[in-house]
Amino acid sequence: MGANHYGHPLDTSGNTLMTTNFGDGPNGTRIDRWKMRVATRDVGDSLSKTPTLLEFLKVMYDACVGGSCTFISSLHWIDLRQLVQRNLHRRGILHRDINDRNIMIAPKDNGRYYEDCVDGYDDVKYVNQVLDPKQSPKSACLVIDLGHSANLDYRAAVSAESKNSKNFAERKGTPKFISRSVSQGELLPPRYIFSQMPKLDGQSYKLHISCTDSTYEAYNKAVDEGSQSSSEPAATRFTHQLFHDAESTFWVISWFLARSAPNDYEMENKPNPELQLFVNGMEAHYPSNNTSDQRACFSTMLETWKQILHPRLVDVAPMLSEMHKYILPEWGYRLELNKEYPEHAHEALMRLLLREIVRIEDDKTKDVVFAPLGTRNLLE
Questions:
Q1: pLDDT 10s digits, 252-277
Q2: SS3 for 317?
């Protein structure tokens, strides 16, 4: 997706407008940013218009891989197709603002769009290629808006001291979906035992290793060997890392599914305290290191997620419970893991998404056609 028009907004004197965030930098410092406005041709559709559960799972799988996007580097437009999250990270960019508006459904019948995508940077395979290795890359989603992204090459080029005075410690993200440690601007307390990497079996395992045969066991070993460590966590400084974007992706998935209902929806007539706690906690969250994050109180238990979801969607409760358990610990303490396998959290989410995709592909009666998002009565 390319830009039709772009440029800096100007003030009445013709000078470039600057946005200043007081206190968002390390130690409450001031951060200055210059914004650029972009106009593109219409492409894709809102995530809220996803018609079925199966399509939503595929969109979110490809959101972890990377949807088509365009970004600015040194004030020049570069059309980097198939580059977001894992694929984008491999090109040295962190998105840092994963939310339900920045993930979109890719156009279904836009030949021009997919012609552009064929020659993209698709190191990690999209779900259509996982399900059928003969297919060319065809992302189910677009991930847009890199206005808050950061360049990893910059981080590598500066010392640890100066790095922490720059934008890798900024509090960037959308309140509902920002990761908990980024929201606080510091590492979370080491309260939770690290999760193990989710394992696959059957058809989902066969499909996964057909694309990543050399890394499946490597991820298992790297994550699992440190999962039961009882030693004190390594001393480290807070920086925004790729696993923070994976946590934001989890919040997008859970927020969408909690509000979803089947197309023959009838208003639920019983109070739902777990759903109310979840909705209120997500709605009320505001990034700060001075207020508590209510999302930290959400239970990861399977039964809780069954209560949050509409009864017709409870089959995905195990997926949400396992995702929640994986993103819960403070992965910032696992220095070697984040250095050698920085994509581990996305790998975990993608395995769990693939398991559900295969389950529904094997029995299409398990799919759910959604009512328009917002139909479900959330708080009664």
A1: 999 999 999 999 998 888 878 999 99
A2: helix
Q: Answer for the pair 355, 319: CB distance below 8 angstroms, yes or no.
A: yes
Are the CB atoms for 91 and 83 separated by under 8 Å?
yes
Q: Model confidence over 322-331: pLDDT tens digits?
A: 999 999 999 9
**Distance between CA 135 and CA 128 in Å, rounded?**
7
Residue count (the chain)? 380
Domain residue ranges of the chain, discontinuous segments joined by +: 1-36
Q: How deeply is 32 buried, as exposed, middle or buried, from its count of CB atoms within 10 A (0-12, 13-18, 19+)? A: exposed
Q: Which long-range contacts (CB under 8 A, 24 or more apart) does 127-133 make?
A: 127/58, 127/61, 127/62, 127/65, 127/354, 127/357, 128/58, 129/211, 130/207, 130/208, 130/210, 130/211, 130/354, 131/207, 131/357, 131/361, 133/210, 133/211
* Cα Rg of the chain, angstroms: 21
In sequence order, the β-bridge partners of residue 72 are: 77
Torsions phi, psi of 160, nearest 5? -60, -35
Place of tokens 């809780």: 304
For residue 108, the tally of other CB atoms under 10 A from its CB is 10
**Residues of the chain by 3-state class (helix, strand, coil), percent to 5:** 45, 10, 45
C-alpha span between 257 and 62 (Å, rounded): 17
Distance of alpha carbon 31 from alpha carbon 293, whole angstroms: 24
